Structures
1.
Amino acid sequence: MIVLGIETSCDETAAAVVTADRRILSNVVLSQLDEHRPYGGVVPEIAARAHLDHIDRLVGQAMEEAGMGFADLSGVAATGGPGLIGGVIVGVMTAKAIAAVHSLPFLAVNHLEGHALTARLTDDVAFPYLLLLVSGGHCQLLLVEGVGHYALLGSTIDDAVGEAFDKTAKMLDLPYPGGPSLEKAAMPGDPARYTLPRPMLGRPGCDFSFSGLKTAVRHIAEAMPRPLPERAQADLAASFQAAAAESLVNRCRNAMTALSQSHPEVRTLVVAGGVASNQTIRTALTGLCGDFGYGFTAPPPRLCTDNAAMIAWAGIERLRLGLTDGLDFAPRPRWPLDPDAISVQPRVTARPRDSARDAAQSTALAARS
C-alpha cells in the first residue's frame, strides 16, 4: 500500500509518498517564510497563492524522488482541514484531480489527525495513548483510542502555546518565525531571573491558559530599554520557556493521574505539533513520564512541523479501514478531532446579586433624573 500525501493547511506546501510498512519514500516541503516574514505572520491570501503556484511541481518532485508513477499508488490523501481555507482548497482540489484521473481512492485527512498519528509512523506506537498536541494554532490533550477515535481531555481557554511563543518572541524583538528564534535566544539565558506566572498551575482538570504568562512578559519587556540588552533578552526568553514547559507538565500530570483510574492501559505520552520540537519542553515531559512510568515519544523535528508524510500516513491508516471520501468532500476551515467535546470557554464567575444594593442604586438614579 502506497499513498501520496498533500499538505497545504497553512504556510508550507508539501507532498510526500509513504508506504504501509512505514517507509517515507519522499517528503518535499516548501516553506513560505520569506513571503510572510515582512508581515510578521502568515497572510492567508499570500499563502493560498503560493500553494497554487507550487503544488504541481512539488507533487511531481515527490513522485520522482519516490521512483513512482501514479499507477503505483493505492490512494491520494490531502489535508481537508482545519486550516486556512484558501490553502486547504488548493490541496484538496489537487488530490481530487489526481484521484479522479487515475481512478484512485481519495482520502480527506484531518490535519490534527495527521499530527496525532505521526508517532505510529515513526515509532509504531500502539493504541491507546495520551497525546499532547502543541502548535501555533492548537494546544490540546487527547486520549487516542484508535483511528478516528479521540477524546478531548483539555484545551486552551485562550492562546495556543505556539502562539504564545511567537508573540513573546515579537515582544523580545526576535526574528520571525518566533518559536525557533525564542528557543535559540533562551539557550544561554537564566530561566530563574524573572518571576513569571504558571497559569492554571495547581488547578484541577487539563485545560491550558497562556495569555497571563504572555501579558507578564509584555509588562517586563516594555519596561526595558531599546534595543534590548542581550543578557536580559536571553534571560526573559529562558524564563518564559521554563514557565510554558512547567505549565504543560502540570496539565499532563493531571491527565495522567485521571487516566490511571479510567484507562490504566494507557502507558505512553506522545507529543506532536510544531512546539514538540522544543528541547526544553521535551526534556520536561520526559521527566514527567519517568515519574509515572510512561513511555515518551516525540517525532523527529522535521515531522513535528507541518509536512505531507504525516498526511500520507494518516491516509494509509484510514485506507486500511476502508475510510475513503467522495469527490464531493467539502474542505473544512474547522474540524475538531473530538466533535462531541464541549468547546472550552474562559471561566467567568458572575458576582452574586445584592438586592438591597441594586434597590439603592435604582433609587439614586431616579432621584438624579
Note: Residues 193 and 235 are 6 Å apart (CA to CA).
2.
Amino acid sequence: MLNPNFKYHPSELPSADELFEALKNGDRLALARAISLLESTNPSHRKLAAELIRRSVEVKTDTLRIGISGVPGVGKSTFIEAFGNFLIDEFGYRVAVLAIDPSSQTGGGSIMGDKTRMARLASRPEAFIRPSPSGNQLGGVNRTTRESLLLCEAAGFDVILVETVGVGQSETAVYHLTDFFMVLMLANAGDELQGIKRGIMEFAHLVVINKADGENLTAARRAAAEYARALHLLQAGQSQWSPHVCTASALTGAGMAQVYDFIDQYRRLTHATGYWKQNRLLQQSYWYEQAIASAWRYFLQKNPEKFQIYQHLKSLVESGEVDPFLAAEELFEDL
C-alpha cells in the first residue's frame, strides 16, 4: 500500500507529521524509511525516530507478536513465507516480517537475502518484509527490533513475525520481544533430546518439526513424538501453558492450520488468565534495561544523582506508564 501524499526523498529528512501520517495509513515505503531512521546513528535521525516511537505507542493495537527461531538450514524463511501467506489467505491479516540477518564480524556487512527467499510474500500488498543486520547485538535480534515492531503495529499490521538470526541455543532475546515463541527443528539432526536440556528450548511455546514431507514425513513424525515426550519433563511456566509439538511443511502447506490453532489456544488462555498483559509489562522492563545497559551502566554507577533518575523511570516503565525506548531517551537527554 502506497500513500500518494507521501513523497520519498532519500536525501531529505521528512517531518514527523508527514512520515507518521503516511506510516499510520499503511504506507510501506514510509514504514521502511522510519525503520531506517531507527537504525541510523545520526543524531537528527535518532531524534525523529524517537518522535515516531512516541506517537506509535499512543496507537492502540491488538497485534500478535510471534518469534520464530531455529538453527541455520531448518527452513525458517521458507516456513515464514508459507505461514505468512496462510495468515493472509485464511484470515485476511496484514503480516509484517522482521528478519534478522547475521552480520560479518570483520566487515560488518550482511547479506540481507530474506526478501529474495520470500519473493511471493514480499510481493503481496498485505505484507511487509524488513531484513536488518544483527550487528553486534546478541540474542538473535537487532538493537532496534523492538522499536521496529512498534512502528509495524502503528502501521496497522495484525501479525508481526520476528525471524531470528539462527545461531543456536542463545537466541532468547526474541522471547522477551514477542507474545508467542516457536522453535523450528529438523528430524534426524542428531539433537532431538540434547536441545531439550538447556537454553532456547526451555522458552519455546511450540516446537515445529519442519520439512515434514515426502520421504522425511515418517522421520518428522517420530521426532515430534520424541520431543513431545521430552517436553513433558519441563514445568509449565507462569502462563500455565505446556509447550506443544507439531509437524509442518512449507512445501505442501501441511501443518500451518495446526500451528495457528496452537497460537490461538495460547492467546485465548493467556488473555483469560491475564498473563498476556502481564507478560508485555514484564517485557517493557526487560527492554528498558537493554536500551541503556551497554552505553550508560558505568556512567550511572559513578553518578548517584543520575542513578536516582534512572530508578524513577524504571518504576514508570514497569507500571506501563512510559514506553522503555522513550524512557531511555529521556534519561539520555538529562545526562
Note: The two ends are 41 Å apart (CA to CA).
